[in-house]
Amino acid sequence: MTVPESDGTQIEVVRVFTDATGRFGNPLGIARAGDVIDVDHQALAARAGYAETVVVEDPIEDRARMRIYTPAVELPFAGHPTVGTGWWLNARRTPVSVLEVPAGPVEVAATDGLTWVRARAEWAPKFEFHQFASAEEMATLDPADFASGSHYVWAWTDEPRGAVRARMFAPAMGIAEDEATGAAAIALTTLLRRSINITQGAGSQMFTEWDSDGWVRLGGRTVADHPVVV
Question: Which CATH number fits domain 10-110+220-229: 3.40.50.280, 3.30.930.10, 3.10.310.10, 2.120.10.30?
């Protein structure tokens, strides 16, 4: 993939789904819509190079519209961008209760240091799920083993407690390996029909709550990183 040349656009960066000490987490690029009116959003995401970059409009009342881009494609919904943007808007003292994405309205709430969003599995990109017998076996995988598609590999580490170890490979989205994938966590929760706690990548943490009506709550911690110019 050819990365377009920089036009000098500044974007904010946060890390989403950190552990309890603020380590790890999946970087998210955040651009204010008013700052990128004449900028190609997909090209901006390709230059930024994060798993996802979002373009967010200023909130109106308690709602904000946003669009989500991987380096290669636009997504109708994704988990770590909605959780991260919900946290970022709250940190800027412009909190919202709903983020409007192309897939539908995503409810946002903050409790006890976690930001939660509520979404449906059918909003997520299509993943192939691969269950492994152990996290040790799964750790031997190489991103180069996955030439196409989007793959979520996982193993129980404590099934009675709902603890899961996971990795995600998505060359179809321009992502060799993702550090934390909220949409896949929602889809896996729906597949298992139970709430789970996921450790993904180097040590990022996600929490889900299953609801029998088909909705899933996805939560995690977010911290600010440094702005970048791309």
Answer: 3.10.310.10
Angle of CA points 96, 38, 107, to nearest 5°: 15
Give the Cα separation of 51 and 59 in Å (integer). Answer: 24
Q: Judge whether 10-110+220-229 and 123-219 match in fold.
A: yes
Tokens describing residue 180: 């934390």
> Distance between alpha carbon 13 and the CA centroid of its chain, in Å?
13
User: Which two tokens mark 198?
Assistant: 């996921």
State how far the Cα of 19 lies from the Cα of 169, in Å rounded to an integer.
21
The pLDDT tens digits for 171-208 are 989 999 999 999 999 999 999 999 999 999 999 999 99
User: Domain ranges in the chain?
Assistant: 10-110+220-229, 123-219
Report the topology of domain 123-219: Diaminopimelate Epimerase; Chain A, domain 1 (3.10.310)
Rounded to whole angstroms, how far apart are CA atoms 51 and 171? 11
Are residues 100 and 65 in contact, defined by beta-carbon separation less than 8 angstroms?
yes
The pTM of this model reads 0.94
Residues of the chain by 3-state class (helix, strand, coil), percent to 5: 20, 40, 35
